[in-house]
Amino acid sequence: MNDLAGKHIVLGLTGGIACYKAAELCRALVKEGATVQVVMTEAAAQFITPVTMQALSNRPVYGSQWDAREPNNMAHINLSRDADAILIAPCSADFLSKLLHGGADDLLSLMCLARPIDTVPLLVAPAMNREMWAHPATQRNLAQLRADGTTILGVGNGDQACGETGDGRMLEPQELLEDVIAFFQPKLLAGQQVLVTAGPTFEAIDPVRGITNHSSGKMGFAVARAAQEAGAQVTLVAGPVSLPTPRGVRRIDVQSATDMLAACVDAAPTATIFVACAAVADWRPAQASEQKIKKDGSGQTPTLTFLENPDILATLAQSPRARDGSLFCVGFAAESHDLLAHATDKRIRKSVPLLVGNIGPATFGKDDNALLLIDAHGTLELPHNTKLTLGRQLIAEIAKRLP
Ligand code: C5P
Questions:
Q1: What is the band of 14 on the pLDDT scale with cuts at 50, 70, 90?
Q2: Beta strand pairing status for 165-169 and 209-211?
Q3: Ligand 1 mean position to 281 CA, how many Å?
Q4: Could you report the per-residue pLDDT of 295-309, keeping only the tens digit for each?
Q5: Cβ(333) to ligand 1 under 6 A?
Q6: Coil, strand or helix: which one is 217?
Q7: Ligand 1 neighbour 331 (Cβ under 6 A)
Q8: Strand locations in 187-327 (E)
Q9: What count of other Cβ atoms lies within 10 Å of the Cβ of residue 48?
Q10: How many CB atoms lie under 10 A from the CB of residue 204?
């Protein structure tokens, strides 16, 4: 992926043991297509060398406002003017306080103060001991920095280098990378509450067996991530899949179609968009055996009888909020052939404004897909691409169609 192609990021490091993670973050930003200019405080250089950061960013590192390499000797101006964002990771408690007060006695703080505030956003990834993090002074500084327009990327929880456990660890490089990518996505769904179903369902036959299908959940997870990146609050109701939860998404794990329906009915009253990506089993065994069904050696096979599962999409699409336009419902159709005809028919049958068709066997488990969008006005092809890119394109199409 090249989600940061064309972006120029000034990566600022301040003093803290989390500097060791900044090396990997720098590499991840570069791998995602960004150009990275590293600026380090004197304290940061106690934890990791500028040599390491230069090698990873492929650019000389800046540390001093007196750096004679700049012809006009104004590194603080030159470095900030062409940045798409300044990211301070790790950002120490001391540096937070400096940012808050507009301190400017070293290159990095000077540069943050001198940046064009409307065009060069400032993102900070705090890193500190849990007591420092919880201290009213730090929390006060964070609140004021937010009010000043700074994006605070949050902290992790867990073991700290000092031996204590709690909040204040710097987020992991991969988490920060996802947050930076999300930051640059257009906020097309700001204020929306999105409910997404994903993955297969598992319909128990007995305590050890069940009926499921090949859905990997990847498309639904990509849609959930794209919605979150677009500024929505997202609830993801996931069948049994082993995928990591997209950052900032509330995930509810379920097994059966009945569980999935209950979770969706629960979340639907506050949702404004429902995207049904899950491959819900059409039928479930009428009676799941409480004990494992044993073969007795006689050659006789058990007989299973089935009940039809509730249609989650149709249920939500028939709710009063969907009918009056407060809940925009999107269905998926995984077909093996005649995609257009089946998907057109399905859109009308499920009475949803938008239906997304894809060829199931071609996409199950894969990282890419191709989509065919069908609404009352016609069709739109979203050609072959990664599921995340398609998820973002789908979110943009949904945003266009909102009442
Ligand atoms: O009827 P079919 O399974 O082909 O419809 C697919 C669409 O309906 C998908 O959006 C799927 O998530 C949804 N669906 C559902 N509950 C079911 C069956 C399908 O929400 N029981």
A1: very high
A2: unpaired
A3: 8
A4: 988 999 999 999 999
A5: yes
A6: coil
A7: yes
A8: 193-198, 203-206, 209-211, 233-238, 250-253, 273-276, 283-285, 306-308
A9: 18
A10: 16
How many angstroms is it from 216 CA to the middle of ligand 1?
15
For helices 93-101 and 136-147, the axis angle rounded to 10 degrees is 50
Identify the three-state secondary structure at position 196: strand
Three-class DSSP category at 79: helix
State whether the beta carbon of 257 lies less than 6 angstroms from ligand 1. Answer: yes
Cβ–Cβ < 8 Å for 128, 93 = yes
pLDDT score recorded for residue 359: 83
Q: Report how far residue 232's alpha carbon sits from residue 93's, in angstroms, rounded to the nearest whole number.
A: 30
Partners of residue 217 on adjacent β-strands: none
**Cis, peptide link before residue 200, omega less than 30° from 0:** no
Ligand 1 atom nearest 257 alpha carbon: 21
Domains of the chain: 8-184 (3.40.50.1950), 193-288+305-401 (3.40.50.10300)
Beta bridge partners of residue 165, listed in sequence order: 159
What residues are paired with 381 via a beta bridge? 372
Torsions phi, psi for 304 (to 5 deg) = -105, 135
**And the tokens for 148?**
């000043």
Q: How far apart are CA 352 and CA 212, in angstroms?
A: 25
Q: Model confidence over 189-224: pLDDT tens digits?
A: 999 999 999 999 999 999 999 999 999 999 999 999
Q: Given the DSSP bridges, would you call strands 193-198 and 233-238 parallel, antiparallel or unpaired?
A: parallel
Half-sphere exposure of residue 253: CA atoms within 13 angstroms, side-chain side: 6
Cα 359 from Cα 176, distance rounded (Å): 34
pLDDT at position 361 = 79
Three-state DSSP at 182 gives: helix
- Bridge partners of 167, per DSSP, are 157
What stretches of 176-245 adopt beta strand conformation (E)? Answer: 193-198, 203-206, 209-211, 233-238
Enzyme catalytic residues:
162
